[in-house]
Design brief:
Strand content: 25-35%
Distance between the termini: 54 Å
Structural class: alpha+beta
Helix content: 10-25%
Number of strands: 39
Radius of gyration: 27 Å
Length: 661
């Protein structure tokens, strides 16, 4: 298996079912990864970056030979679309689980692919390889070779076209082309399987319109915009495109669909795509099994498209922060738990939840790989039931240790426009309200702070070496409230509470704290306006039950060091307890630009002594397969530039010093 994470586990699950032994490869940072533990054999690839491990073709071929493997499954990443790797596998005498190398060479050039498909009378948008020939605007710049949305950008006027094309070429290090930008369109794809005997079977369609950075985060089948007649037209066009390109294997024919029902071919993706799980749910077929069958030279067992059973929706849970330009989040995943999951990595026998993940409790997410942690799929008789089931499970999931896009996914699934099927590729741009955290009300945050403080007190009492049975905060003589200060989602907050002699909550309060007051001098006195009475039904180190005006509320608290992960029906919040005696930290210069996440410096566009404008791009960081720009916050002069292209940096590391004018 020449890939890692979730897709490796998915392929291994079917291999176990059909009696095929499996071999995993792993880098230095993936020694204890779940996909390694689930394989029959595992071969170490020395190094930690993708370029030296999972993308190093010679090392992968050598690992396959050393283990005695007779076939290579490339997963669904870059290598799955690489014609050179496909040829190297077959030249080494092994079976390549994918389309032939010759087909991949054609697909590798999107302009050539579009030309062949257009000749087969499939609708295609015009292509302009010379920017000077663009007849009108807006246009979309796309890489001629590449995956994942890298290098794509919309240009709305001729004045910015030349620079946008040059920038895109630098980003992808290759050729780009332009095509008309069609706003308010849906991204629809038709998953297909084709065997060497000429049979091509489409599996309905998938709606993939909810995207960020031209990458999907919500997928479903069937599409709410596609009726029976349109589905037949799309599937017919997909079959024509597949045969025109000589495609064999598993893939997806991607289209743009406008509100009038017109559609245009985008590309043929020659992999078992990330969203194949929704198709497995509604078709009942194990697509990995069929993919392996075709690779062995077998014929597809079904005569035509299988009927669609119910509705399935999938979300991609990613370690990233949507509120901060989708900034990836690296660190230890202390807890990853989704309730009511019915199965993983296989078609479900009946409607329910399916979780395909590449991580487990204790997994470490780093800067070198895609930020996707898992795919959660809901399969139900109707679209409304699937959306409701999926949103509920996500909201109740415990995702601790890294920032995720969970709240955005829940708000999207519950949004009235999504429920009505009113979605397209601009959905997130039109609905900024979905970026708000679920735990947004002041009262909910206050209750979470109180629950964290009570759980902390219970933990300390339970671990106390003496007098552990005394109520928390007990004194011979009544004194001030017990307090704790947390760094919460909106800044530092102080929570205080008083307990009576029976161990019952006598009063409580929460107030925001000015960061300059964090020396805690003078804090600990209850404000005059205490919050309404609350009864503590029970309080342990990991679960607090509160009675709020006659309504019981269970709050789960997971403490890791000085951090509390608090989950309740209101939402989730992470609270870091601030020490009363913090150690002094070195202060960075006011004009310092520091790394917001660990990664590799990809491009440096300035030199020391250079004058820059406010907002000018200084350098870029590459992390989790995405490029992140670092811009000048104001006009000034680059005083120091301690990094260079290729340098590995950690969060908080100095990137540049800019002396403002």
């Amino acid at each position: 298996m020449a890939d890692r994470g979730e897709i490796a586990r998915r392929v291994f699950a079917t291999c176990r079912l059909v009696g095929i032994e499996t071999v995993a490869v792993y880098s230095d940072v993936d020694t204890d990864a779940p996909h390694v533990n689930e394989a029959d054999y595992a071969v170490h690839l020395e190094g930690s970056t993708p370029a030296t491990t999972y993308l190093e073709q010679h090392a992968l071929i050598a690992a396959a030979k050393r283990s005695g493997a007779n076939a290579v499954h490339p997963g669904n990443g870059v290598l799955a679309e690489d014609p050179d790797f496909a040829a190297a596998v077959t030249d080494a005498g092994m079976i390549w689980v994918g389309p032939p190398a010759a087909t991949l060479r054609t697909l590798h050039r999107k302009t050539e692919t579009k030309k062949l498909v257009a000749e087969a009378k499939v609708p295609v948008l015009p292509t302009f390889t010379d920017p000077a020939t663009v007849p009108g605007f807006p246009v979309l710049i796309k890489p001629d070779a590449g995956v994942g949305g890298t290098g794509m950008r919309v240009v709305r006027d001729a004045a910015t076209l030349a620079e946008a094309v040059a920038s895109a070429r630098r980003e992808v290090d290759g050729d780009v082309f332009c095509e008309p930008y069609v706003p308010n369109v849906r991204h629809i794809e038709v998953p297909i399987l084709a065997d060497a005997m000429g049979a091509v079977v489409p599996f309905g369609e998938r709606e993939c319109s909810v995207q960020r950075r031209y990458q999907k985060i919500v997928e479903e089948t069937p599409s709410p915009a596609v009726d029976v007649a349109l589905r037949e037209d799309l599937c017919r066009a997909a079959i024509v495109a597949v045969r025109a390109l000589g495609f064999v294997g598993a893939g997806a024919v991607e289209f743009l669909l406008d509100s009038d029902g017109d559609f245009w071919f985008l590309e043929l993706t020659p992999t078992l795509q990330t969203d194949h799980a929704v198709t497995e749910c509604t078709s009942g077929y194990d697509l990995v099994r069929l993919q392996l069958l075709v690779a062995e030279g077998g014929s597809l067992p079904m005569p035509g498209p299988p009927p669609i059973r119910g509705h399935a929706i999938e979300v991609r849970i990613c370690a990233e922060d949507p509120a901060y330009a989708w900034l990836p989040s690296a660190g230890t995943l202390h807890r990853f738990a989704v309730p009511d999951v019915a199965g993983s990595f296989r078609p479900l026998p009946q409607p329910g939840l399916r979780l395909d993940s590449g991580v487990a409790d204790g997994s470490v997410t780093g800067p070198h790989h895609d930020p996707m942690l898992a795919k959660l799929v809901a399969w139900a008789p109707s679209r409304q039931e699937a959306a409701r089931m999926l949103a509920s499970a996500l909201a109740r999931a415990q995702l601790h240790g890294v920032v995720t896009n969970r709240d955005l996914l829940v708000r999207t699934l519950r949004h009235h426009s999504f429920r009505a099927g009113d979605i397209d590729t601009g959905f997130l741009d039109r609905h900024p309200e979905v970026f708000a955290p679920l735990l947004s009300s002041v009262d909910a945050v206050r209750l979470s702070c109180l629950a964290s403080a009570l759980a902390g007190a219970a933990d300390r009492r339970a671990s106390a070496p003496v007098l552990s049975t005394l109520p928390s905060g007990w004194r011979n003589v009544p004194s001030g409230s017990q307090t704790a200060v947390y760094d919460g989602p909106t800044g530092p907050v102080e929570v205080g509470y008083r307990m009576n002699r029976h161990g019952e909550l006598a009063g409580w309060w929460v107030r925001s704290v000015d960061p300059e007051e964090l020396d805690l001098a003078g804090l600990g006195q209850a404000p005059v306006d205490e919050h309404p009475p609350i009864m503590v039904v029970s309080a342990s180190r990991d679960r607090v039950v509160l009675d709020v005006q006659g309504i019981r509320l269970a709050v789960l608290v997971h403490r890791v060091g000085d951090v509390s992960y608090v989950d309740s029906p209101e939402g989730s919040v992470t609270l870091r307890e601030i020490s009363r005696f913090p150690l002094p930290a070195p202060e960075a210069a006011e004009s310092s630009l520091i790394a917001p996440l660990p990664g590799a410096v990809r491009r440096v566009l300035v030199v020391p002594g250079q004058r820059v404008r406010a907002g000018e791009l200084l350098l870029t960081l590459e992390a989790m397969k995405l490029e992140h720009p670092v811009h000048a916050p104001s006009a000034g002069v680059v005083a120091s530039l301690p990094v260079h292209p290729g340098a590995e940096v950690d969060t908080g590391e100095l990137l540049a010093v800019l002396d403002p004018e």
